[in-house]
Every structure is written in structure tokens, then in C-alpha cells.
């Protein structure tokens, strides 16, 4: 049954990717695309690549802070599991990399897999708040070219809406942890018009979330999570700026933040492993707001995607080889735990 679901998700994702690739390449001039790639200054790639791996390493550091209430874990093990997880996300369907990442660490550190996965839920919440903050900053500060005033106005409006959403989610989480029974009661009343099965499921998920989550409480640990979150996204946005400069595109750093928001939303769309198609379409769409020619925008998208695709696959496969672990065996064990 699990294999059938995975196969369906894989083929559905491939179909989504093929659709977006068709939208991208139907009006592309291949000669202009190749010309843009040839004119690229490749000296920017090495620092961009180094920063990309620094971002992965900082993710491991933040994960260490999130695991402190559970166990003191080894940073080297955390970094290895992070690389394996991101490699798996690029090779396996349905974002199984998150489960592979959790199972890999659980096996090495002898921690229950659900407990490790709960820390990854916190990890994603940290990312969500970080991206919302980046989105707010980008929408309020990015300056689009003349003639794009309507889009600029829409961005500012989007900034206000996102800021309100950010505050609402943060407030809800605070109430959920401080006034749990009262908050669950309010949620139950809000869900009153919905079917009982749905209401029960939502309340069970919220209760399970609270039961499995142990957020660090010491000021130093919380500060570590905040600092590493800033560094994770700073070292993720900076390579985008470097790739833009390699193509002779000089835009403020807020433009790279703007592009990063589009890329983050792109990886949320169910697509083929590695987010092929959706990732490129989102990047080209973001760059079109700055009136970058389509062929050059697609060239940028191809390079940014390749930077986050091939190197981490090589690094992840090296870690598996070093640890004498099979990716197929690891993914099978992960699917068994998921089932």
C-alpha cells in the first residue's frame, strides 16, 4: 500500500514538473539561453557553493539546540544526517527526505524516531517564521522598475497581510503552550460547523503536537536558535545574490530575498524529486518583476537550482558510503516507520 501511494505521488509530481517545464520552455530561444550561460562569470560559483554548505551546517547547529531537551547530540552526526536528508529530498518523492533525516539521526543517536521527527516539526516552524520575516522585509523594501507600480503596491499589501499572519500564528502558538485547555476549547468552538471526525482529528493533532514538542527554555538555547536561524537564511540568500552578479545582474540584496520567498513557496508545490520545473518557474517569475529577459532569468534559475541539487547529492551519497548505509534500505525503513 505504501509503495502504491509513493508511486502515485511520484508520477503526479512528475506530471506537475512537466507542466511547469512546458510553460517555461515553450517560448524560450535556445540560442539566447546558451549565450547567457556562456557569458556567466563562474568565479562567483565557489563562494556561493561554500555558503550553501555553511547554510546546511548551520541547520545542523540549530538542530542541536532543538534536541537539547532530549539529548546532547554530536554535531558531526547532525550534519551528516542533514546532508542525507537534503540529498533524499532531491532523489525521493513526497519530501521523504525529512523522514529519512529523522530516521538517520534516530538510528545513530539511539533516540526514538517520533521524538526526532518532533524536533523537525520545530525546525520547520523556525523556518516558517524566518521566511515570513524575509517576506515582510522584501515586500516592504524591494524597489521594482518604473512601470511596475501596481505590482509594487500589491507587494506592500502582501507585506501587511503577511505581517498580520505572522503575528496571528505566533500569538496562537503562545496561547497554545501557555493556556492549552482554553485554546483547544476555542479551536473546538471555531470548528463547530465542521464534521465531528474532522474536529476530533484536528484536536488530536494539536494535542499530539504539544505532547511531542519540547522547546528549549534556557535563554542561551533560545538565543542560539534565533542566531542560527538568521545565519541559515543569510547564507541561503547570499548565494542567490552571487549567482545574479555572475550573470551581470546588479540588484539590491532585498531582490535576492524576494526571489528566495518565491523559491520557498515553489518547493511546497508537489512536484518531482528535486522540485524540477516548479523551482525554475518560480525563479523566472520573480526575476520577471525586475524585467530580466526570460532566457537570462531561466539561466539564473538553472544555476541556482543546480547549486542546491548536485553538490548535496554528492555529499549525501559520500556520507552513506562512509557509513556503509544503503539509500534504498534507509528509505525502506523510513517508509515502514511512516506506515
TrEMBL record:
Compartment(s) where it occurs, according to its Swiss-Prot or TrEMBL record = Cell membrane
**Topology with respect to the bilayer:** Multi-pass membrane protein
Record bears the keyword Cell membrane: yes
A single GO cellular-component term from the record reads:
plasma membrane
Membrane-spanning ranges: 7-25, 45-63, 75-96, 116-142, 154-176, 222-240, 247-268, 297-321
What are the entry keywords? Cell membrane, Membrane, Transmembrane, Transmembrane helix
Q: What is this protein called?
A: Flippase-like domain-containing protein
Species classification: Bacteria, Pseudomonadati, Thermodesulfobacteriota, Desulfuromonadia, Geobacterales
